[in-house]
Amino acid sequence: MPVESSVESPAGEIARAVVLAERMIGKAMDRALAVLGTSAAQRPVLEALWDVGETSPAELAKAARVEGPPMSRMLKRMERAGLIKRREDPKDGRRQLVSLTPKGERLREYLPGVADGVMTKALVRLDPDRLSRLRVDLAALIQAFEEAARHRP
């Protein structure tokens, strides 16, 4: 789905295209991941738990780069789906700890392959030169935003 030209600035057009691409990737990932009982939005949470192990919701939100209220809702959905469990922190009864269930742990075997398959299926439509340029351009865009984030106005 090409991004239509408008009177928008080049920066606005690029921002809109990146957001649209993210949404379309999310939709395709959600369709593919539904068979595993998870979603694209839950992927960063699962990956963070695979990396850090049992942790507090606040630390998990930081590791997964998910905001507080959305994280709380996501953890409720993941708990209902049997992917995570929560328990009281034995050192501090006011805190909870989040960990993976065996079902959540098993997704480590399948989720990366499913996600890779979704991306490969879409990217195969691009010729090799265009795909190579896209990789370089996306890396440059990410670097530019990282640098901009370090330099506050």
Kindly describe this structure.
With 153 residues, the protein is mainly alpha-helical. The protein has one domain (10-150): Winged helix-like DNA-binding domain superfamily/Winged helix DNA-binding domain (Arc Repressor Mutant, subunit A), CATH 1.10.10. Helices cover 65% and strands 10% of the residues. The protein contains 6 helices and 2 strands. A two-stranded antiparallel sheet has the order 1-2. β1 (84-89) and β2 form a beta hairpin. The longest helix has 24 residues, at 10-33. The chain is globular, with a radius of gyration of 19 Å. The two termini are 35 Å apart. The mean pLDDT is 91.
Q: What's the structural blueprint in terms of helices and strands?
A:
Elements: H1 10-33, H2 43-52, H3 57-64, H4 68-80, E1 84-89, E2 92-100, H5 102-123, H6 128-150
Helix pairs in contact: 1-5, 2-3, 2-5
